[in-house]
Design goal:
Blueprint (H helix, E strand, L loop, with lengths): L2 E8 L4 E7 L2 E5 L4 E5 L3 E3 L3 E9 L7 H10 L18 H4 L1 E11 L3 E8 L11 E7 L7 E6 L5 E4 L6 H11 L4 E2 L5 E2 L5 E6 L2 E4 L4
Antiparallel strand pairs: 1-2, 1-10, 2-14, 3-4, 5-6, 6-7, 7-8, 8-9, 10-11, 12-13, 14-15
Length: about 210
């Protein structure tokens, strides 16, 4: 299980996206199940992505190390992402049993938020979907995108254009729900990982 949240924020002279993910991870192969904490983000020079899904671990020798290698292999893959581009040939995507990603991209004049998944309308499977964009002078109500348990997501327009500090509080609350899984157990999401994408670059925030 993985929780993702993205919120657009607005300061007096700055706007951007706050991205967040939980850190709890379970991997299972034919021999054992391992629970551990891990970052779930991957990076390019101007792009950051959040990953969630179900991946084939039957050939993993060391579940934690092999997962981190799997994640690192996505670094740089989405640097040239554009709306409608098909990523099915990416090995992790091709071998996934179900996945979802949020990706935020920075350029000099625009910030873009994309969605990539194997859920929902089959017409859009494995194709980058542009969800939102911000320009340097953008000023609008904040929007939150939230994904939990499945390849689907919720998009909600907020009542205000929230600043970064307010969005951090909102993201931490969204990443720490009391969630009951399908087998009746309570899911413990672990520490939150937060990232900022704005026109100054991509920043990793300290774990709150």
């Amino acid at each position: 299980m993985t929780i993702h949240v993205v919120i657009s924020y607005f300061e007096k002279e700055e706007c951007g996206y706050l991205l967040g993910t939980d850190s709890s991870l379970s991997l299972i192969n034919k021999e054992k199940k391992v629970n551990f904490l891990s970052e779930k983000a991957f990076f390019s020079k101007n792009t950051i992505g959040l990953l969630g899904g179900t991946f084939d671990a039957k050939n993993f020798n060391n579940l934690m190390e092999d997962y981190n290698d799997l994640l690192k292999n996505l670094d740089g893959v989405f640097e040239n992402i554009v709306d409608g581009k098909n990523y099915f040939e990416v090995p992790l995507i091709k071998n996934s049993k179900g996945y979802r990603m949020f990706l935020a991209k920075k350029s000099d004049e625009i910030l873009e938020l994309y969605r990539l998944s194997s859920g929902g309308n089959k017409e859009y499977w494995h194709k980058a979907q542009l969800l939102h964009s911000l320009q340097r002078n953008s000023s609008e109500l904040s929007t939150m995108w939230y994904s939990i348990l499945s390849e689907h997501y919720l998009e909600t327009k907020q009542e205000h254009n929230y600043n970064l500090e307010e969005c951090i509080d909102m993201a931490i609350a969204a990443l720490n729900p009391k969630t009951r899984t399908q087998d009746g157990k309570i899911y413990t999401p672990g520490p939150s990982h937060l990232y900022i994408v704005n026109f100054n670059g991509i920043t990793t925030l300290p774990i709150p």
